[in-house]
Structures are given as structure tokens and as C-alpha cells.
Known about the structure:
The chain is an all-beta fold.
Amino acid sequence: xxxxTLIVALLxxxxxxxKEPIPTKITGLKTPESVVQDKDGTIYISEIGEFGKDGDxxxxxxxxxxxxxxxxxxxxxxxxxxxxxxxxxVADNTRxxxxxxxxxxQVYAAKAAFPSTPVFLNDIEADxxxxxxxxxxxxxxxxxxxxxxxxGGVVTVIADSKSPEILAPNGLLFEGRNQLLSVDxxxxxxxxxxxxxxxxxxxxxxxxxxxxxxxxxxxxxxxxDWKNGVINQLSGGKARLFKNGLTSSADMVLSANGEYxxxxxxxxxxxxxxxxxxxKLEETKPAxxx
Length: 290
């Protein structure tokens, strides 16, 4: 059973000015991997279920009153999710799904639609025009790719292992001006891809098993490290520890009000809420390695 702890305060905070208690977490999730929050405060969480078992994956919904329900089910291994307007797009193993607001879904890009065979579709991002970008983490060591799915469904490769930087790309962030950030799960390197000419440039390293990648309204970049259970901030061209003790911290998102990081803890089965106002830590003890 899923349980909720003080999340109603967070949802209410989007509509009221009074100070609310700091929310903590949702428990009882089945291998949560990614999360997204609508402008009205509604939260959607992807749950893989059992890895490699088709049909047991689902999307869970937490509404504005804190009610938790299964929103969409029957998926395989749903990971990254992104909200475009009122439609959810989900990276589901070797395909991308399109989920309607009534919970029904259909395949948006089938495995056969990809110009090279996807192995481990992971994160998914969208630009302002509705084009999608999907990372394929390959073996989680090498063989990775990054795809673009143009609005309408045509899939192309924008980066692959022909470039030495591309090992196991995971977290993605569209920066605008034809720039895409990606963090690599194997190397821990954050790099920038010019979508116009395909050029790849290193931004920083030291992000361990890089997973979730977000930018705050003030331009600060935070990256979760799944392998070491921490969140790092990009600061002065380096990775600096922001929060530790987060076992298997996966694909996080910035809350709709810009004040919290919503972080799935995959192996723990929880979604935790971390205030961005917390002071940075100076020392870290990795929570877990793969």
C-alpha cells in the first residue's frame, strides 16, 4: 500500500501564500524511476515493477488533495516521463508511449520505428515545439544512443557510441537555442550536444552514476547519482555535493513551484521531497553502489 506523509501541504502550497510544513515522502512504490509534476500540483510517478517483467509497470497519480491512485497500467518497464501540454510521454523499455489524461495509452514510437535498435530507453525530454529526446543507456556501460522523436513520430539518432563521449547516456535537459545537456551513467560526465551540428562538448565530470538532471528557475543545475545515492550541484564547473543518504536516487524533477526536488528512490520504493533551501553538505558517504 502506498502511503503519503505531509504531501498535501506541498500540493496546497501552490495555491496559498501561508507557510506550510515541509513535506517528506511517499512510500510503498514499486521500483519508482521517474516523476513529473503538472502546474496544478498533480504528480505522476513511473513505477517499473519487476525489471524485465512485461505488463506490470504503471504510472501512479497523486492529485492536488493528496489522493494516490493508479493512473495508467499494463506497461513493461516505464522509466523517464515528460508532460507535454496535457499528454504524458513515457520511455518504456524499447518503445515510447503516449498517455492521455484519462489514463489510456498507445504506442507513440515502437521499437521498429527507431533507426537503430534501442536497448534500454531511459530518460525523456521535450523541447518547446513538442519534439522529444530519449536516451538509450545501452548496457549501462556502453552502446548508448540519444534519439530525437520529431513531433509526428519520425525518429532519428542525434548521438551514439561512435562519439567517445557517448557510453551510457541517461539524464537529459533541453536548454533552448538548440542545445541539449546529457549526463552519462557510466562516466559521470555532463556534456552538451549542439542539435544543429551534432558537436559534443564536455561541461563537467564527477557525477557518478548520473541520472536525473534539472535546472532551477535561477539557472542552477542539479544531478542525481544513482550509484552513490547523492545529489550534486554543478558549481564553478565542478560537481559539488548537495544532498547525500539517498539510496538509488533516480530521475528527479523540479517541483512546479520551483522550491523542491522530487526524487524517486528506486530500490527503497519512495518519492522524497528535498527543499532547495537546504545548505550544501561538505562530506558524503555513498548510500549504495550498484
